[in-house]
Amino acid sequence: MGVEILQDGVLYVNRKKVGDAEYLLSIRNGDVAYEDVKKLADDLLAKIKEIKTELSEQVDREFLNQVCVELVEMSGVC
Fold first, then answer.
1. In 10 A of CB 15, how many CB atoms?
2. Taking the domains of the chain in order of start, what are their residue ranges?
3. pTM (2 decimals)?
4. CA atoms of 74 and 49, how far apart (whole Å)
5. What per-residue confidence (pLDDT) applies to 78?
6. Do residues 7 and 51 make contact, with C-beta atoms less than 8 angstroms apart?
C-alpha cells in the first residue's frame, strides 16, 4: 500500500480490487513462511526508497492536529 500511495497518490483499501487480498490473508493465517514475508518486506522497502514522489517529506503538524481534533469531536468522546 505504501508503494501505491507514493506512486499513485491513492490508498486502495479494498485489496480484492487490487488483487492481493488472498495472499495477504494467507500471510495473516500463517500459511506463508516468515522468510518469504521478510523478503517481500525488504523488497518493498527498497522499492519505496527508489520511488520519486510528489508527496512532501515534511509533515504539516498543524493540519494533522486539526484532523485529529475533528475526528475526536466526531466520535463524541469529548
1. 14
2. 2-75
3. 0.61
4. 36
5. 63
6. yes
